[in-house]
Design a protein that fits this description.
This protein is mainly alpha-helical. It is 56% helix and 3% strand. The termini are far apart.
Length: 133
């Protein structure tokens, strides 16, 4: 009998166990039905083909935290301004300016969280950098 050529198709012979709650299993089944693929294929695509979260450096995390503290202070100033306006007193700051500052601060925090490390060529990262979930 002639030798059959081995198929070029990928042979999956390894099993990977995963624990799911009842709700998670139902969601997995629903998503796989909606996508028209098996639950296994859905898990492979989500687990292997999605990009990993970006790494955030210590400096970025510290900056993000510090901007949060500044935001807390701005919120206190906004509250004092609104209270002064309600009481008929002169506000300590212009409400429009405070709103602009808060929006800029939130935009800065979003930028830090999304665009911290884009180039993979950088070898200067330290080993103990934090990795986002």
């Amino acid at each position: 009998m002639a030798n059959r050529k081995q198929s070029k198709r990928v042979v999956r012979k390894h099993l990977f166990s995963l624990r799911l709650s009842d709700i998670e299993l139902d969601l997995l089944r629903i998503k796989s039905l909606d996508a028209g693929i098996s639950a296994s294929e859905l898990m492979r695509r989500n687990g292997l083909l999605r990009p990993l979260p970006k790494r955030l450096s210590k400096i970025s995390l510290q900056t993000y935290w510090e901007l949060g503290q500044i935001g807390n202070n701005l919120n206190q100033l906004v509250k004092a301004t609104n209270t002064a306006i309600l009481m008929g007193r002169t506000p300590p700051a212009k409400p429009e300016l405070l709103r602009e500052l808060l929006e800029l601060l939130h935009q800065c925090r979003r930028d830090i969280a999304s665009d911290d490390v884009d180039d993979d060529d950088s070898e200067e990262e330290e080993e103990d950098d934090w990795e986002a979930d």
